[in-house]
UniProtKB/TrEMBL annotation:
Ranges for region Disordered: 1-20
Name of the protein: Uncharacterized protein
Organism, as annotated: Strongylocentrotus purpuratus
Highest taxon in the source lineage: Eukaryota
Length: 140
């Protein structure tokens, strides 16, 4: 007697022990970078300081991180969509000479994870979106 063909797929029996197997997490969509929260030298950071509340966004590059959690920052100037460059201030008593504007701030002033400027010296899209979200909480 010959086997009759069936429309149902043939199921094979396997010894399957799902308790011992480990599964990889599957992410569907664009690749998302894992974000660091700790800051290091040469990281760019977005901050909020009340004394500079007329300037938004406040962006700087970390020169050094001190043990007391304070940060030495080189301030940058730009807008959400323009190029960013270092802020230079005149040196007192030396006509025409300028130096980078460097200031020490508390690390609690940092409002977004550290980032790097793009190749075009602009803010990354993720940072721009984060700053737009934070704007309403600081300026109402």
């Amino acid at each position: 007697m010959a086997k009759q063909p069936t429309d149902r797929p043939q199921l094979e029996e396997h010894a399957c022990n799902t308790e011992d197997e480990t599964f990889r997490q599957v992410h569907i969509g664009p690749k998302v970078k894992e974000q660091r929260t700790e800051v290091r030298e040469r990281d760019m950071v977005a901050t909020y300081l009340p004394e500079y509340s007329t300037h938004w966004p406040q962006v700087g590059c970390i020169r050094s991180v001190h043990e007391d959690k304070s940060l030495q920052i080189e301030w940058y100037t730009g807008t959400l969509t323009s190029k960013w460059k270092e802020v230079k201030v005149p040196v007192k008593g030396q006509k025409g000479r300028k130096q980078l504007w460097v200031e020490t701030i508390d690390s609690s002033s940092v409002i977004l994870p550290p980032f790097s400027l793009t190749a075009g010296e602009k803010l990354p899209l993720q940072t721009v979106n984060g700053l737009r979200e934070k704007h309403s909480s600081y300026f109402q």
